[in-house]
Amino acid sequence: MKIEALALQGAYEIEPTLHKDNRGYFFEWFNQQAFSKQTGTNFTPVQFNCSKSTKGVLRGMHFQSSSYSQAKLITATRGEIQDVIIDLRAQSPTYGKHFSTILTENKKNQLFIPKGFAHGFLVLSEEAEIFYAVDNFYAPEHEGGICHNDPDINIKWQLDQNDILLSERDKTYSAFQGAQFNF
After folding, report:
1. pLDDT digits (tens, 9 = 90+) for 9-43
2. CA distance 155 to 44
3. Which residues contact 21 (CB under 8 A, 6 or more apart)?
4. Which one of 1, 7, 41, 139 has the fewest beta carbons within 10 angstroms of its own beta carbon?
5. Catalytic residue status for 148
């Protein structure tokens, strides 16, 4: 398993070792011992989620505030997505910065997102299935979001804005400067 620290403090991209033969393949999706040893981070998932979306669907930029914040481990089990995170931790040296990567079913790569980040993804393939593990339970009364096309954050989405499909809720999120979060 290859674990690479990203420019945003506490975030990592993980590329598992695929063991392939004529029958198919095997890989460890997550190994707490190896992850903790390489990163110094203890990640203990308590909830596993899966979503399926079609091309152009953008889900994000979501977060849960305060003690309800979630660390996440994300992968695309089918298709390809652009995965984006924004550091919302006011005391962080990377506060207000974002990171974008492509997660694909072929690479099996993953993104580890620490607590205190907004997260979203854009489906680039005709269809995608996303699997993610989180270390805190979903608390809808503590959820929030950042506008996906905030000019101050300036995310370079891989599809034209006219081809992006948002939920009604995601259309209502405020700009980064106006958002309410407590990390």
Report:
1. 999 999 999 999 999 999 999 999 999 999 999 99
2. 30
3. none
4. 7
5. no
